[in-house]
Backbone:
């Protein structure tokens, strides 16, 4: 199962491959504030994806948290990712649910090894923030459009321009002058770099303004339904452990985030944004 022969190896920066080389992505969504990212993304996907059975391409699907969940729900899922370790981890995740398997291949969001008009939905939960050139992001979105059937849905995640500033305030990283320099560049042009590969400072990426995500989605020829805050103003809640284990408090938190998920004045305060569009 490999699309990588016909489709050349993705050109991820070496720093990005090294960053993911620890394998931490496999557990990421199960801990910390990423639990909120996972739950909110699932809520939005349930709202916008067609009902199963439907064909879903999970592009930049990493180790397969969403692919496994969607396959268990009855979707026909094919994951593609640029990091070989993530594809290996996705194969393990698929093997762990033999009654609800999904396919996983190595490949590049800019050059999808899938036929035109062959999918009901495409997830891009990763590539847009790792593609630092605008033309590459528009190309990835246009590839998603190409493989969608008319009326099919794309859900594309971005990281907010302000994430390092807000994260630095919450976690104390701004005491480090090196991090202050990183934030200054992020605020200037969205080009996030971590020159000394500090594990907590993420890796080479582009951080969007909400309107940039809207414009790129439209430029790819998609009908933009909207840009949604994923974690919203709870992105940097320091005490998620006080909220999450208690179902009533968790539901209250999720309800409050949903109330402001499209509030333009708050979008940039959400760590992740989700553009939802249709072919
Ligand atoms: C932070 S991980 C997110 C994984 C998963 N989608 C999630 O939301 O948890 C970002 C993923 O995007 C993948 N990625 C980045 N650029 C890509 C590209 N051009 N083509 C395919 N995958 C890419 C990375 O390899 C990585 O697995």
Residues:
């Amino acid at each position: 199962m490999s699309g990588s022969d016909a489709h050349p190896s993705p050109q991820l920066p070496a720093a990005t491959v090294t960053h993911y080389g620890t394998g931490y992505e496999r557990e990421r969504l199960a801990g910390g504030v990423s639990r909120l990212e996972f739950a909110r993304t699932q809520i939005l996907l349930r709202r916008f994806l067609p009902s199963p059975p439907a064909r879903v391409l999970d592009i930049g699907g990493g180790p397969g948290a969403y692919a496994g969940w969607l396959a268990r729900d009855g979707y026909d899922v094919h994951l593609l990712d640029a990091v070989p370790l993530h594809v290996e981890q996705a194969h393990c995740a698929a093997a762990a649910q033999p009654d609800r398997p999904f396919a996983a291949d190595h490949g590049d969001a800019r050059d999808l090894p899938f036929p035109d008009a062959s999918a009901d939905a495409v997830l891009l939960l990763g590539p847009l923030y790792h593609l630092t050139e605008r033309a590459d992001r528009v190309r990835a979105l246009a590839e998603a459009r190409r493989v969608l059937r008319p009326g099919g849905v794309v859900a594309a995640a971005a990281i907010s321009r302000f994430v390092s500033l807000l994260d630095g305030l919450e976690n104390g990283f701004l005491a480090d002058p090196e991090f202050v320099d990183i934030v200054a560049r992020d605020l200037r042009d969205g080009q996030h770099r971590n020159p000394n590969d500090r594990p907590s400072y993420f890796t080479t990426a582009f951080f969007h303004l909400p309107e940039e995500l809207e414009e790129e989605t439209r430029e790819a020829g998609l009908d933009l339904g909207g840009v949604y805050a994923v974690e919203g103003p709870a992105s940097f809640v320091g005490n998620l452990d006080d909220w999450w284990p208690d179902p009533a408090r968790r539901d209250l938190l999720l309800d409050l985030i949903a109330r402001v998920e499209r509030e333009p004045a708050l979008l940039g305060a959400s760590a992740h944004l989700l553009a939802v569009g249709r072919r």
User: Anything to note?
Assistant: Residues 174 and 181 are 9 Å apart (CA to CA). Residues 34-48 form the longest helix (15 residues). The two ends are 28 Å apart (CA to CA).
